[in-house]
Amino acid sequence: MTTPHKGAPATPSSGRALTATKVLTHAADLFAERGPAATSLRDVAARSGVNQGLIFRHVGNKDQLVGAVLDFLAQELESAREAGVDAAVVENMIERQWKVLARSVLDGYDPGELQGRFPSVSTLVDRFRDCHDSEADARLAVAHTVALGLGWRLFGPFLRAAAGLEDVSEAELKRAVDQQTTRLLTAASDDTT
């Protein structure tokens, strides 16, 4: 999502890479808070402490920024998981990523067109492929699992109230969601229907 740069490639410690990381981090925070539609490039520049022109130079236009943020958050989460980062930190990262994703979709952005990689979903498909009769079944199981998690994460208060689950503890709810997630991911399709 970044524009090509002539000369030496950017390294993590280069000014270009540091600027892009700063911009993407602050854009992600703003998108999580209020969504991309309510966030201007000027807002991102001000929060990042950079000139708005640097955003165009290092990332691109608004659509490119949304895509770059989605890719950045996905990569950040994948790297944290691979590094064994504390589960509470990973949970916060997931929360932020899914808020940005949900707000982006609600604002009319299509992550399928803007985001280049979906490492968490790909990892789940790879991990649970053998539990299903076909590639399509494995992909559907993962999609259903992500939808379940996203639904509870974003609409938990509504779901609790609507289904009369206010007295169910967080631990019980988490256990029930985890059981359904396991069932979805590990159950081969039922050919008896």
UniProtKB/TrEMBL annotation:
Gene3D superfamilies: Tetracycline Repressor, domain 2 (1.10.357.10). This is TetR family transcriptional regulator. PROSITE patterns: HTH_TETR_1 (PS01081), HTH_TETR_2 (PS50977). Residues 17-77 form the HTH tetR-type domain. It comes from the Bacteria. GO terms for molecular function: DNA-binding transcription factor activity; transcription cis-regulatory region binding. Residues 40-59 bind DNA. Keywords: DNA-binding. InterPro entries: DNA-bd_HTH_TetR-type_CS, Homeodomain-like_sf, HTH-type_TetR-like_transc_reg, HTH_TetR. The lineage of its organism: Bacteria, Bacillati, Actinomycetota, Actinomycetes, Mycobacteriales.
